[in-house]
Design a protein that fits this description.
With about 300 residues, the chain is mainly α. The chain contains 15 helices and no strands.
Length: about 300
């Protein structure tokens, strides 16, 4: 079934982008703490991912050594990303937090340059000031009454989440060379993320192990829509499309997040904040314009 998805990469990317566009909204509707939301969106995703991972192991053999420890490292980064990003949602709203999370498209290229020696394309460097302007506008420092309980702090959290997610992407990419088996690495990383989220949440003191029935329902929907369906569809399709095409298609995610958040949870960013979001989206496309057919960054899973 997963191999069949790869034969229709464009529709799969679009469906996946819409699925993950609801991440911040579903977290807001659950009314749980950032650590609780991060922990349970991973926990409820584990059973289906385990089944898919077992099917892959039976077909292609067990994963060992480097692939496993890199997936655990990816899970540690993912835990940090999810908790910080959920804090960004609380401070600046689900829509703008999702836009801010997409700064990883630029950040992952810079980190790959610093850590792996992969020199970024000139387009990635050109996107940095564009994205920077977008972050400043979203933060509300240039206006009074910007949307969000603390948009400046939300902007900081959003960029920090992008950095953590870049670490997740680099780790998972290094340990996921076999494109036939997307579920196995995702299962291990999600399991590791659940473990680290529980530890971080316990340390911070905001982890609730008994959320309400209503909250549990929203978190299960979050796990299935974003952590499973959205991520698998996009990760399977990305290697099969040119980078410019995927970047343009994936702008659907933050755009939908802003629109859906306005319709569902009454978020109303200011005109300057919306302009900042547009700058980040422009930077996302600019960062991958002119690259080769293999994309350098995956979508914002935290979103």
């Amino acid at each position: 079934m997963l191999r069949g998805v790869g034969q229709r990469p464009v529709p799969a990317v679009l469906v996946g982008a819409v699925a993950i566009a609801f991440s911040g909204i579903l977290f807001r509707l659950s009314h749980v703490s950032p650590s609780t939301g991060a922990f349970y969106r991973c926990v409820w995703a584990l059973p289906p991912l385990w089944v898919l991972a077992r099917l892959e192991d039976r077909r292609y053999g067990n994963r060992r050594g480097r692939a496993l420890w890199l997936a655990w490292l990816a899970g540690a980064f993912l835990a940090v990303d999810l908790i910080i990003w959920h804090n960004a949602v609380e401070q600046v709203g689900a829509g703008l937090a999702t836009v801010l999370g997409n700064t990883q498209v630029v950040l992952v290229g810079l980190l790959a340059w610093a850590l792996l020696g992969e020199r970024p394309h000139r387009s990635s460097l050109a996107a940095i000031p564009v994205v920077g302007i977008g972050v400043v506008l979203i933060s509300g420092v240039l206006e009074q009454g910007a949307y969000g309980s603390n948009p400046r702090l939300g902007a900081v959290y959003g960029v920090l989440a992008g950095i953590a997610y870049s670490g997740f992407l680099l780790s998972l990419r290094q340990g996921s060379r076999d494109l036939r088996r997307p579920a196995g690495p995702l299962f291990t990383a999600t399991l590791a993320s659940a473990v680290f989220c529980s530890a971080i949440g316990a340390g911070i003191g905001d982890l609730d192990l008994t959320p309400s029935l209503s909250a549990t329902g929203w978190l299960i929907l979050l796990a299935f829509s974003s952590q499973i369906v959205g991520w698998l569809l996009i990760s399977i399709s990305l290697p099969r499309l040119p980078a410019v095409v995927t970047s343009i298609l994936l702008t659907l995610q933050p755009v939908c997040s802003v629109v859906f958040a306005a319709l569902i949870v009454d978020e109303s960013p200011s005109e300057l904040q919306l302009a900042g979001g547009a700058c980040i989206l422009l930077g996302l496309v600019t960062a991958t314009f002119g690259r080769g057919p293999v994309p350098a960054a995956e979508p914002e899973l935290a979103g």
